[in-house]
Amino acid sequence: MKTRFGSAILGTLVLALMAGTAMAQDKTLKINSFGGAYEQAHRKCVITPFEKETGATVQVVTAYSADAFAQLRAQKAAPQFDVVHFSGGQEIVGAKEGLLAPIDPGKLTNIADIYDFAKSGIARGEGPAYSIAAIGMIYDSKAMSEAPRSWKDLLDPKTSAHLVLADISNGYGMLGFLMLNKVEGGDLANIQPGLDAVKKLLDGGATVVSTSPEIQQEFAQNGAWLAPYASDYAFTLAKAGLPAKFVQGAEGTPASYITVNLVANRPNQELALKFIDMSLSKSAQECFANELRYTPTNAKAVLSPEVAAGVAYGAEGVKGLLRFDAATIEANRAAWVEKWNKTIAH
From which residue to which does the signal peptide run (predicted)? Predict the structure, then answer.
């Protein structure tokens, strides 16, 4: 009898311990963020408010999209992330591979306010876009008497010597190049028109850089006037005291979707969905726009005229956004980079 009684007590203690562990797990989320200024804004706009509202703890791993996706793939049998963020379209591949879970819109209180294009894949497991980096033209408002209006303005021989192009190994650089290719008559099956245009620009004195800080250096020190790049980086240049402004091209605005995704086969998906929901909120998206000049996908977001001028804002502003097929880009990336490298080497 004593043995059975002791076993019963031990069993009860074990169950209590397991329950306590489960409760602790339920109150902890592991996510990735992108580091630097982005991660600072992420904490301010979403992570800290979420922790205060829910009492949960958010563990942040600094990992850019490609690295986070590689980790997610490697951990498929025992995933470690609860929520994963991407900016390069990895959610499309991840959903197909079963790494991401479909999202029930009934679990998200803010989903009705999100533009349709930003939530079209949630039933497939493609997380909704909670911010967008709009790719257009950054220009020096003092050096250029008129703002560029068309992507074809990049081809003006008068500005070639003051033009900066980002290497297509850079995500923003890839999108800018694909848009240039598009206006020159190319498409994702044929990038030669874009490569021919780049060769002409380089012959005219254009500069190629690999990283965002190099663009700032070109504008600050080397006489750059114009660069096809993202709205958030135009804001970075302006904060550094440079007369940089951002404008969308008339033919369309390539969009880098920043998505928040529900990882499959994790035990605390209810808490993860609450985190995703907060990312979609009006207040979070207004915060991201104010802090980094990202385009909100929540139709109810209200921005000041100054902030709105630096993003694609409102129903009319987002009409010009376009998204090149991320799966096609990924499948061709290596071959395109090889062709690009041969072009810029001459």
Answer: 1-24
